[in-house]
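User: Could you go from structure to sequence for me? I need the amino acid at each position, not a summary. Structure tokens:
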């Protein structure tokens, strides 16, 4: 397994979450680490001071460019967040800002590429909206080609008083985009027009959750036959059978990501599929653990392990490209914990803790060529 660069982002200034939690602004910017694929060890290489709150970052798979949201209520006196494009300009992962655009909504929280990587999509949590940006020939961002806003509310008046888009999820064939909305308890469905950079609403594609779950993030299996959705408020995973041709889905299972005996107030966070397609992982804040699921032949899940995240508030984690390691960022204790993944059963074993990681909220990898 090759070594690769590993980037983290976080909150550089205090931010109030939808849950009421206030996250301190200890992050210094976007940090680059070298990750040793043989040992699982991290080496901090550089920190690029950035525009406020790079709380979600995405690395271009084909070019040395990194994109991040700036999760803000306003920027320069103008309401809303921004999204920034950085070029990776050195072997130590230092970044140079190349462009910045408004997302046309507050508290941008997620980014995703279109299949052909010609467009970047952003979800605006508090703004209740989503936006699409053309990626220009030099990998800078153009002005938004599409901005859409959700409407409605959920059953929980404190958390679901309005729409809260939390992710931009592309279908396996790239034709559809699903937007998990915590406030509406559904994945709003869109058809992608990648010639114009438009998303076209289609209610027949919308995938419902269960009222009060707080739909957060989803991931498709490798064959595109099942969709797994993490819920924030219920700390459950929904399993859907997915029809690639029609873009529609049917709920077939809901399973808890919590330990059976835990009563701590908790919030579901990230969800990831193992590269082999055999196991699914989810993180939960409050109880501060990682849940491991085995994927059965019919796509349903069985919980096989609860692993302490070895820190507080594991907001995000990623898997190494070969599936040998899981790296979890513990936001409130400023650590990145590296776990080995068993080749036999997918279970996690703690290997290494990187301290002083400064309020990590997101982790992203870029292969070192």
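Assistant: Here is the amino acid at each position, in order:
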């Amino acid at each position: 397994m090759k070594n690769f660069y590993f980037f983290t982002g976080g909150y550089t200034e205090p931010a109030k979450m939808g849950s009421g939690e206030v996250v301190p602004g200890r992050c210094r910017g976007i940090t680059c680490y070298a990750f040793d694929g043989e040992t699982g060890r991290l080496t901090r290489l550089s920190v690029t001071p950035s525009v406020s709150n790079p709380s979600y970052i995405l690395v271009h798979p084909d070019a040395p460019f990194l994109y991040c949201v700036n999760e803000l209520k306003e920027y320069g006196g103008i309401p809303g967040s921004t999204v920034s494009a950085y070029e990776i300009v050195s072997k130590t992962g230092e970044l140079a800002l190349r462009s910045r655009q408004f997302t046309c909504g507050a508290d941008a929280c997620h980014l995703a590429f279109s299949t052909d990587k010609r467009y970047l999509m952003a979800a605006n949590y508090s703004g209740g909206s989503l936006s699409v940006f053309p990626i220009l020939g030099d990998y800078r961002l153009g002005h938004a080609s599409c901005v859409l806003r959700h409407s409605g509310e959920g059953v929980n008046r404190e958390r679901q008083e309005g729409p809260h888009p939390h992710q931009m999820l592309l279908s396996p064939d790239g034709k559809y985009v699903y937007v998990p909305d915590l406030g509406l308890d559904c994945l709003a469905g869109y058809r992608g027009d990648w010639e114009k950079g438009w998303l076209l609403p289609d209610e027949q594609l919308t995938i419902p959750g269960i009222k009060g779950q707080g739909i957060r993030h989803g991931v498709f299996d490798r064959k595109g036959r099942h969709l797994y959705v993490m819920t924030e408020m219920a700390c459950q995973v929904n399993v859907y059978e997915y029809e690639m041709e029609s873009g529609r889905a049917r709920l077939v299972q809901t399973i808890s990501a919590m330990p059976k005996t835990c009563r701590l107030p908790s919030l579901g966070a990230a969800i990831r599929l193992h590269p082999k397609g055999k196991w699914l992982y989810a993180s939960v804040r409050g109880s501060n653990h990682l849940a491991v699921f085995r994927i059965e032949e019919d796509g349903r899940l069985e919980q096989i392990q609860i692993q302490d995240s070895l820190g507080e508030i594991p907001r995000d984690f990623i898997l190494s490209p070969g599936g040998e390691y899981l790296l979890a960022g513990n936001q409130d204790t400023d650590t990145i914990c590296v776990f080995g993944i068993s080749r036999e059963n997918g279970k996690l074993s703690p290997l290494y803790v990187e301290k002083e990681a400064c309020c990590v909220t997101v982790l992203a990898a870029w292969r070192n060529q």
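One structural detail worth keeping in mind: The radius of gyration is 19 Å.
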